[in-house]
Design a protein that fits this description.
single chain; mainly beta; 6-stranded antiparallel β-sheet; two-stranded antiparallel sheet; globular
Length: about 140
Amino acid sequence: MSFSNFIENHILDWLLNAGSYTPDPAGLYYLALWIGTPGEDGSLGSEVSNANGYVREAVTSFTWDAAVGGIIVNGVPIAFPEATPSGWGNVTHFALFDSGTWGAGNMLMYGPLQGAPITIASGSIPRFGVGAIAIQLD
């Protein structure tokens, strides 16, 4: 898992320059699915197309278990809408954004999906069980 350049800069400013970053007061962020590694600024790979039923899935602070050993995982299942009519392709990564609008907002962090990439075909409903999305700082 990696932080994006956007959030790294905010953290450094907050720690060393008395800068600030105001997270969403409701703790609301959006999980995006990615084909290929997003990269620090989201310019590599590509988010799943905003067609075929895909939308970013809202997640809140209640989605995550307490961090242990520098790792936090989803504590509740996360489901996306049904992929239709032609599927979403071979998804390899996730990213968290501060906007639910496709192609908008700031990418905060990204990482590979646990296990093998997932091919999301037409008619499938992508689901991630408890612990399937892990965010780790080392």
